Prior knowledge:
Elements: H1 4-12, H2 26-37, E1 48-53, H3 56-70, E2 82-89, H4 95-112, E3 116-120, H5 123-128, H6 130-138, E4 145-154
Antiparallel strand pairs: 1-2, 2-4, 3-4
Amino acid sequence: MINESLLEALEERRSVKKFKSEMVPMDDIEKIVNAGLYAASGMGKQSPIIIEVTDKATRDQLSKMNAKILGRDTDPFYNAPVVLVVLADKSVPTHVYDGSLVLGNMMLASYALGLGSCWIHRAKEEFESEEGRKLLEKLGIEGEWEGIGHLVVGYPDVSGLKAVPRKENRVYKI
């Protein structure tokens, strides 16, 4: 069975960099997180974890930490009300790849639900910092974790996002 709508979503989903402040329903957030939990992982180890942030104070704390690393006084989360942080167990050799697949699944799930999303980097640096380690400790998360990325999610405050043409000569056939 061919799932044409999935193939279309793969081509149509774009990163959103301007969000409305309206909160996403918890049911939709759970669907997005669940899609992340079903991502493929090396040897089925399921090494990544997801921190679901809907608390504005914690969201703003993460934003400030991220902006400091970025070196800009801005909101790197583009006003999105939801931040889904993906971390992965450093002891698993495929942890970066596994966490990347989680983020990819969640981006597609967000799009399928009519929401916008954007992968934001610098989670690695955030959770290597003293402040990041204290946040994990506060949440009861123990062990050696690497921040893979943040997925910011919300209602887009932009429309008409289109893919740029694909570059040529990126596929080699044997």
